[in-house]
Design brief:
Length: 506
């Protein structure tokens, strides 16, 4: 197949074309940047364009085609029809920066010091895939979040990220006096986020940050260029506060919706873990309160879906759909009332660590495929390296998904386990509640260790997919618990950052 030819031909000698002349200097201020288009690299005409859509806090169970009968996501459904949906994709950290640093580098958060929200700067312990691709001729752009360092009370310090076009908007509200591209755009329209909220009580769709991010992506896609491109669309939705436009919430018959899943044991379980940090305390969200909570969350995702439709239409109208890889994912999930919890923290329920992951590209990626293999977001970067014909990086912890995407490997086996960590990740202002957690999940079992608390969780994911029956203290599962704990500890040791490349015997 013609579209697969670059996978073989471009691997040979690819190290020789890794160039540094396109390197970007570090930019401290997150202003909008428009640098000259990079020169296309010779012999790279087969490299695919990449449209990488990453939402914020979107659970795995939020797509109609994957089983949620209460939500309307026709455009995400269409991506699945023309691609592969990994239905057991897990993030490597249940918080923004740890997950984003991981999937942008192909490495676990701890070895690259990408553990906490709010760090002063990105440590640059591993190259970002966007920088690597920019260095070989990709024209890279971004709209929305980056969140590799602190954005609290300041504009995020920008690392050497490879983006030529950089429309920074960490979140929609106007928290910065300058440098916030979305608020500057609203101002150019004669309004602002605060003004709109006061007038309507919500942000109308045409002024919404998700719509603005999509507009910037469409502008970028329509630019004239001769080489491949990558665009990161990183909208803030469906991150709290859950405030969808009214017309999207009105789509739902709230009384007909389910309540967030809850068991009586949840209250006691969360009280047992009260010293392990979470953003909310335990409470059962029942009746109309719980149903409205889910309706607001799903309404925000329907807004995202409508904008994905605009992106697909633009690719088709510009003749770029056939050679553009569309990736859809999220950095982590959201509890949205499940188990009596809201938002996120040091927990590893599926609603927090399991996220959508869809790849779609006609002629290359299999179509209408639900892949049940265990995969991690850490696998995205090595996948992009292979698709671009670049050499694999042996220091990455991720494993390329190309053989899964093209049907070369069994759709049921990619990894024996997935791994996720929480390393005092939301430390700011919580000095008395330092929390550390590690999760390892096989096909059958999930083990969570809350380090320093002498406790954890063990779930049989086949018999108890809702994670309501903690087997941590069950004597019949002691051997399984110990085997998984040893495996998790071994993995932590094996992935230690050992410093710069080894070049001599001593």
């Amino acid at each position: 197949m013609e579209r697969r030819s670059f996978l073989k031909s471009s691997l040979a000698g690819s190290a020789a074309v890794m160039m540094t002349q396109f390197a970007r200097p570090i930019v401290a201020k997150a202003e909008r940047v428009r640098r000259p288009l990079p020169r296309p690299v010779k012999h790279r005409t087969e490299m695919p364009n990449i449209l990488w859509i990453c939402t914020d806090q979107q659970r795995y169970d939020t797509i109609h085609a994957l089983g949620n009968q209460h939500i309307r996501t026709p455009n995400l459904d269409r991506l699945i029809e023309t691609g592969v949906a990994f239905t057991y994709a897990h993030c490597q950290g249940p918080i923004c920066t740890s997950s984003r640093g991981s999937f942008l580098t192909g490495r676990y958060p701890r070895p690259i010091r990408s553990c906490c929200n709010g760090n002063d700067k990105w440590e640059n312990a591993a190259p970002l895939i966007t920088k690597t691709l920019a260095d070989v001729g990709y024209d890279c752009g971004l709209a929305g979040k980056l969140h590799l360092s602190a954005a609290y009370g300041r504009v995020e310090k920008r690392p050497d990220d490879g983006y030529r076009v950089f429309h920074w908007s960490h979140h929609p509200t106007d928290s910065w006096p300058e440098g916030h591209a979305y608020e500057e755009w609203l101002s150019s329209k004669g309004t602002g986020h605060t003004k709109l909220k006061r007038k309507y009580g919500y942000i109308p769709p045409e002024y919404h940050q998700t719509t603005w991010c999509t507009d910037r992506a469409i502008d970028f896609i329509k630019e004239k260029r001769t080489g491949p491109w990558l665009f990161s669309l990183n909208c803030f939705d469906p991150h709290p506060p859950l405030d969808p436009p009214k017309q999207y919430l009105d789509r739902f018959d709230i009384d007909s919706l389910p309540e967030p899943p809850f068991a009586p044991s949840d209250i006691e379980e969360q009280k047992r873990l009260r010293d392990v940090y979470f953003q909310s305390g335990p409470k059962q969200y029942k009746g109309r309160e719980g149903k409205t909570l889910l309706a607001k969350y799903w309404a925000m995702i329907e807004l995202i879906d409508d904008n994905i439709g605009r992106l697909i239409k633009t690719l088709e109208e510009t003749g770029q759909r056939q050679n553009t890889l569309v990736i859809f994912t999220s950095d982590h999930g959201n509890m949205v009332g499940h188990h009596g919890l809201l938002a996120k923290g040091c927990r590893f329920y599926e609603g927090l660590v399991r996220v959508p992951l869809i790849f779609s590209m006609p002629g290359l990626v299999q179509q209408n495929t639900r892949n049940k293999a265990l995969v991690g977001l850490v696998d995205i970067t090595p996948t992009l390296l292979e698709l671009a014909g670049l050499p694999a990086d042996e220091r990455m912890h991720g494993k390329s998904l190309v053989r899964q995407l093209t049907g070369m490997d069994s759709p049921d086996q990619h990894r024996d386990y997935v791994y996720s960590t929480y390393t005092n990740t939301l430390a700011y202002g919580e000095k008395d509640r330092k929390s550390y957690g590690t999760m390892i999940r096989t096909r059958r079992y999930k083990l969570v260790n809350y380090h320093g608390h002498g406790t954890g969780e063990l779930f049989d994911m086949e018999k108890d997919p809702g994670e309501f029956h903690n087997l941590w203290d069950d004597p019949d599962h002691l051997r399984i618990k110990m085997d998984l704990m040893i495996q998790s500890y071994d993995l932590t040791v094996r992935t230690t950052n050992t410093g710069s490349r080894i070049t001599g015997r001593y």
